[in-house]
């Protein structure tokens, strides 16, 4: 579902050659740089998440390896969200500093020629050096896909859905109303990355039906999410949908603020980072030509 198109070998070699030819330019003692904003899509099934880990295959690691081949030195990529192992993305955003003399080269095509087939660059833009993919984001949207057919799961969808069987969707929608607003979300935070505050504003939680047969897709939008917060929300809503928890009990769980009192975490495979949004003042991007 999230795989990239095949890349013709001749086209790849010609694109990379264009990068190599730019090395003929004389280098200054302190080389000026340009900041690029990258939009990425990836299938998270075979990745140990976004963030670099020693001895593990990660999205950040693959991207930095490809960039280093093009730039000729190590570079550090900063992502908007640190997706966990098995989590997918259609709209992950990252930024990176590259030599200014290479700023207008065909980055999208060159990177996609070097990246593995389960990750690709969707768009590249030049942004001000002040832009930060993570700290300038003011809204993130995730989707979570449930498989509701109780007797089978299509093999092609197993890595992208959570098989849960029949659910009481009306009860889930009622419970989801308690998951919108600004409040302390400690009850839906798993242990892990320390944060200054567990208060977040959730703008919207809603389901969509009518896409693929036997699938219900839930969307979650907020100014930010705690560690595994969306998966914990989804686990709670599914528990309501199975009749094991009343909708109004969700509010009580939130008031208690204890992870131990909340239902189990939904698996990673159904989760996808759909998009990351920014204030208009955060970046005034210029498109990078790709051809």
Q: How does this model look, in words?
A:
This protein is an alpha+beta fold and 291 residues long. It has two domains: 9-135, 2-Layer Sandwich (Alpha-Beta Plaits), CATH 3.30.70.580; 138-275, Alpha-Beta Plaits (2-Layer Sandwich). Helix content is 22%, strand content 27%. The protein has six helices and eleven strands. Strands 1, 2, 3, 4, 5, 6, 7, 8, 9, 10 and 11 form an eleven-stranded mixed β-sheet that branches. Helix 1 crosses helix 3 and helix 4 (169-176) packs across helix 5. One of its GO terms (molecular function) is RNA binding.
Write the layout of secondary structure elements.
Blueprint: H1 9-21, E1 33-42, H2 59-71, E2 78-79, E3 88-99, H3 107-114, E4 119-127, E5 137-147, E6 162-163, H4 169-176, E7 181-184, E8 199-209, E9 215-222, H5 229-241, H6 249-256, E10 271-278, E11 286-287
Parallel strand pairs: 3-10, 5-6
Antiparallel strand pairs: 1-3, 1-4, 2-3, 4-11, 5-9, 5-10, 7-8, 8-9
Helix pairs in contact: 1-3, 4-5
Family: Belongs to the tRNA pseudouridine synthase TruA family.
GO biological process, one term: tRNA pseudouridine synthesis
Active site: 84
Secondary structure tally: strands: 11
Oligomeric assembly: single chain
Low-confidence runs of at least 5 consecutive residues: 24-28
Largest sheet: 11 strands, mixed
Q: By CATH's scheme, which homologous superfamily of the largest domain applies?
A: Pseudouridine synthase I, catalytic domain, C-terminal subdomain
| Shape assignment | globular
CATH topology of the largest domain: Alpha-Beta Plaits
- Report the top-level CATH class of the largest domain: Alpha Beta
Fraction in beta strands: 25-35%
* Helix proportion: 10-25%
């Amino acid at each position: 579902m999230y795989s990239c198109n095949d890349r013709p070998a001749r086209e790849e070699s010609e694109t990379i050659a264009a990068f190599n030819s730019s090395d003929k330019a004389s280098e200054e003692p302190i080389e000026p740089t340009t900041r690029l904003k990258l939009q990425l899509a990836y299938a998270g099934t075979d990745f140990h998440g976004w963030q670099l880990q020693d001895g593990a295959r990660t999205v950040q690691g693959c991207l930095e390896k490809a960039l280093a081949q093009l730039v000729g030195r190590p570079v550090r990529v900063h992502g908007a969200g640190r997706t966990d192992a098995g989590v997918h993305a259609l709209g992950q955003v990252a930024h990176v500093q590259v030599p200014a003399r290479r700023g207008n080269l065909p980055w999208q095509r060159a990177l996609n020629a070097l990246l593995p087939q389960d990750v690709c660059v969707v768009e590249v833009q030049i942004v001000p050096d002040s832009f930060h993919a993570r700290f300038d984001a003011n809204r993130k949207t995730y989707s979570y896909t449930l498989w509701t057919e109780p007797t089978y799961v299509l093999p092609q969808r197993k890595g992208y859905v959570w098989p849960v069987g029949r659910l009481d969707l009306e009860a889930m929608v009622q419970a989801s109303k308690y998951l919108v607003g600004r409040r302390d979300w400690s009850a839906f935070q798993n242990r892990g990355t320390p944060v200054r505050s567990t208060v977040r504003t959730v703008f919207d939680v809603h389901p969509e039906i009518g896409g693929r047969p036997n699938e219900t897709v839930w969307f979650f939008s907020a100014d930010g999410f705690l560690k595994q917060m969306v998966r914990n929300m989804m686990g709670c809503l599914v528990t309501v949908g199975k009749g094991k928890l009343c909708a109004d009990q969700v509010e009580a769980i939130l008031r208690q603020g204890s992870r131990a009192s909340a239902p189990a975490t939904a698996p990673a495979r159904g989760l996808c980072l759909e998009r990351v949004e920014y204030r208009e003042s955060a970046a005034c991007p210029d498109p990078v030509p790709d051809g």
